[in-house]
Amino acid sequence: MRDPYTVLGLSKSASEADVKKAFRRLAKVYHPDQNRDDPKAKEKFAEINAAYEILGDKDKRSQYDRGEIDAEGKPRFQGFDGFTRSSGPHAGGFEGFNFSFGRGGRRGGGFDPQDLFADIFGEAMGGRAAGGGGGRARAHYPRGEDVTVSMTITLEEAAGGGKRRITLPTGREVDVMIPTGITDGKTIRLRGLGEPSPFGGEPGDALLTIHIAPHERFTVEGKTLRQRLSVPLADAVLGAKVHVPTLDGVVSMTIPPMSSGGRSFRLRGKGLPAKDGAGDLIVTIDIELPKGPDPELEALMRKRRATAETSGR
User: Where does the J domain start and stop, copy by copy (predicted)?
Assistant: First the structure.
């Protein structure tokens, strides 16, 4: 048989998880039930299974890497076929030999390929694990693959929740409930809405990633919202109460006299909702000058500039 690492397409540094993942992927591709018209699929599948019997068992893999067993799981030794000689007081007789059962055998609770086979394919390969009832647990079916999908929502939907209908990669249309206060990049797991299992197991899940569309007024920073608000020059100089739009309506905010442009005000609890309390809305004011000529304002500014120049001498 070929090198197990080559059969599974792995390097010798592959982790246990890598080995298992490679086996599951190849086993699904070459499973005889999926390739009824390919006579070579059964042979390929048997080779994949044999390779995993070596690499999927920690002890056997170590023995193979050290050169103690070959690709079929048989000991590398000189002399008798089927057993190896050991040292000890009874080395002269059969008591001095350790019998090797090779692939498909089992001793002392070691790796059993039948257990593995049943675990991977379950009843799709004959119901219960080989050996009949015998107290063995019912085989597990492998799950279907997970699918990924994204959805873009408005900031208002993120703040208040809602329901959206989407089409999954499987072609199925479903209604998705948007949780109140969901943040950008959050993933929602839709259980059982992924790919079906080719072996009769449970379907995979759909992983839905939420993206929040840019808003024309608000900028999102976690659960904090920011916005810029234009106020007339007179309100900035004399002070005033101004109307500030928020996600849940318009509120009143007081601007103190002589407020400079770029000054920020915090409206607590007017940001995005969250489990640990709603965020804040930070309002930064921009001073709005008259759109057309204003002789009175221009005269006042000339007077103030002249006064400043005189006092600066």
Answer: 3-68
Q: Which two tokens stand for residue 116?
A: 């593995």
Residue 304 reports pLDDT greater than 70: yes
Q: What is the pLDDT of residue 206?
A: 93
Question: Cα separation of 288 and 58, whole Å?
Answer: 74
Return d(Cα 309, Cα 104) in angstroms, integer: 100
pLDDT in the model for residue 291: 85
The one-letter code for the residue type at 223 is K
Q: Identify whether the C-beta of residue 273 lies closer than 8 Å to the C-beta of residue 180.
A: yes
Contact (CB, 8 A) for 273 and 159: yes
Could you tell me the domains of the chain? 4-111 (1.10.287.110), 147-212 (2.60.260.20), 219-295 (2.60.260.20)
Local structure of residue 214 (DSSP, 8 states): P
Cα torsion angle, 214, 217, 220, 223, sign: negative
Q: How confident is the model at residue 271 (pLDDT cuts 50, 70, 90)?
A: very high
Examine the pLDDT at 157 and tell me if it is beyond 80.
Answer: yes
The separation between CA 189 and the C-alpha centre of its own chain, rounded to angstroms, equals 9
The rounded distance, in Å, linking the Cα atoms of 208 and 182 is 12
Percent helix / strand / coil, the chain, rounded to 5:
30, 25, 45
Structure tokens at 138: 């019912």
